[in-house]
Every structure is written in structure tokens, then in C-alpha cells.
Amino acid sequence: MKVIAAYLLAVLGGNTSPSANDIKGILGSVGVDCDDERIEFLLSEVQGKDVTELIASGREKLASVPSGGGVAVAAAPAAGGAGAGAPAAAESKKEEKVEEKEESDDDMGFSLFD
What we know:
Number of helices: 6
Distance between the termini: 24 Å
Strand content: under 5%
């Protein structure tokens, strides 16, 4: 995914045909090591193809993939006495929300990578 992201960043930057060195440069600028084989594989797969067409065909393919929404529905009845467990679940959700809010307040003014 890092190699694909670097390729797309190069294309967004105006380079319509990024080379392996361009991708290595982008990844190296943020301190990421890259595998030459993966870069070469990506470049061989996208050679001569338009990025917007690749993205459009990928969206069409992803539209046919099940999203897994049925798993949560199936898991709810398996819990058994849901009437008794529901208040406890609601309390734990409230506690989690409070903890997240406190953590986000502590990070104010600091960079994500500090």
C-alpha cells in the first residue's frame, strides 16, 4: 500500500509516469524503506494505463464485494439474554467515550508524530 500511495502522490504532483526512483524518493523522504520488487511489479502493472481509469475499474470491482454488514446482525442474537446484557453494554460504551475524550484533550498542541 505504501508503494501505491507513493505512486499516486507522484501522479497527483504532476508526474504522469513516475519511475522507481521517484517512488523511492517519496518513500525515503518520510523515512520508509521500500522493496524494489514491489515497486517494479507496480510499475509493470500500471505501465501505459491511465490512473483515473484504473481507479474507476477498481471501484467497479469493489462494488461487488460484500461489506460484511450481516456479521453484526448475526452476532447479536447469539449473545443469549440480550435484555440483561444491554444495560451493561451501554455503560461500557459510555465509559469508553469518556476515556477517548480525555485522551484527545491531553494531545492538544502536540504533533501526531512527537
